[in-house]
Amino acid sequence: xxxxxxxxxxxxxxxxxxxxxxxxxxxxxxxxxxxxxxxxxxxxxxxxxxxxxxxxxxxxxxxxxxxxxxxxxxxxxxxxxxxxxxxxxxxxxxxxxxxxxxxxxxxxxxxxxxxxxxxxxxxxxxxxxxxxxxxxxxxxxxxxxxxxxxxxxxxxxxxxxxxxxxxxxxxxxxxxxxxxxxxxxxxxxxxxxxxxxxxxxxxxxxxxxxxxxxxxxxxxxxxxxxxxxxxxxxxxxxxxxxxxxxxxxxxxxxxxxxxxxxxxxxxxxxxxxxxxxxxxxxxxxxxxxxxxxxxxxxxxxxxx
Length: 304
Fold this sequence. Notes:
It is a single chain. This protein is an alpha/beta fold and 304 residues long. It has helices at 40-58, 92-100, 109-120, 185-189, 191-202, 208-216, 220-244, 259-269, 291-297, and strands spanning 6-11, 15-21, 27-34, 63-68, 71-72, 79-80, 104-108, 128-134, 138-144, 147-148, 248-252, 282-283. The strands form three sheets. Strands 3-2-1-4-7 form a five-stranded mixed sheet, sandwiched between helices. Strand 5 and strand 6 (79-80) form a beta hairpin.
């Protein structure tokens, strides 16, 4: 095989996945393993092992792009702003380059997701795309004219750690967040946050997925929890729309699989958008769970 090979890696809190893409975007190989919990060195070795296994199977060396839950500090090169706390303060890119003996490109996982959906997904053709991650954490990525907007401090799109605008006294000061603040959008809108809100109101411990399934089956308490979630998500997205006014918003992460979000969110956003009309499309990802990892592979352009 002599086609250019691009390897994309999704470094998640629960799993590490690698995808090998040919120049034409054809998926050649995919592998997934569990993420070593709280162990930085084991995480490095797991990534290196995946790269070695894929390259051995395909008999070809590839470029490596990695989507990470956080960002690389432009000042120090160390990882910051991640709920995978074993990565914080570590020189991840430098260590991986030493292990893999090649240049490695890192980007926030939400940026990778947004790039994928803007390039060949639900946001294809739009001049500005806001890609949203609603999963274990809450993140966002901005793509303008086909290029990731990283920002001066490498935090563009990180709406998850802005405070949710409170709508009632019981939302203030809000749940504690791992970042040390209270009331962050992530502390209200992540999958675990939805589960915690349901527990507070109903006394029943369910996962976000179970809440969605029971709501679809007619469970009133679960429907109420999703209605609260949608109203909060509408307020949170409106702050982004008022600032960025993207042409398209694409939802990703586990909660993006809830069909009701696409029916209900426009009405939840509209009252909080500073405009006489609101028509921004809020779309499901074309590539589903594969979108972020495809974006990681595309951090490397094809050779001229």
